[in-house]
Amino acid sequence: MAPLSTSRSTTSRSRAHRGREARVAVLVVDALPVVRAGIAMLIEGCPDFRLVSQAGNAEDALTALKKAPSNCVVIVGLGLEGPHDAFWLIEAICDRFPGCAVIASGARSDAVTISRALLSGAGGFVDKNVDPDEFLDSIHVAVRGEMVLAGPPQEWVGTIANRLEAGASGDGHLTGREREVLSIAAEGLTARQIAERLLLPEDAERAVEAAKQGKLAKLGQ
Question: E strands along 56-123, which residues?
């Protein structure tokens, strides 16, 4: 009986290990220790994610990413200051760790700051004042490779879109349809929900995704 018991124990440990590996790795970067700890606790409390590390500055974040999974989600607080500020870090992550998804996060950040974070390479922005569930949902969206804007007022979307166009290199022009998709995506809707909102045919979901991806490509992301 002992060998059988050992086998079961080993199998259980193996399944548990696979379960841990299947969870999405998340790195939290924020200059404020209390905020950093709060977000970390939120991440650790969600069974879909696993916290791989915390960092209070850009240098520590880049060091942690060297040991993290290549598809890690990085939440970057926009309060990082100095030569290696949040925007520098976002660009560095996108350049050195292209497989990572970056979410910028700030407390009541204005449209200019949000636009700058997106132009630096962030795949989305989440306000720190949103509900915890919405914060976690935003990470899920980022994992799927979709853009997320959680928290900014809807009236800011036009300003953000204009700044993205002005700051994008090459053909940075956003079409009217892309701007419309951007506006609705700011509500955190899925591609299918966007298609329904725009009254597109059922098979237009793929076209919506293509429009979103095309927009991101124009922004150099």
Answer: 73-77, 101-106
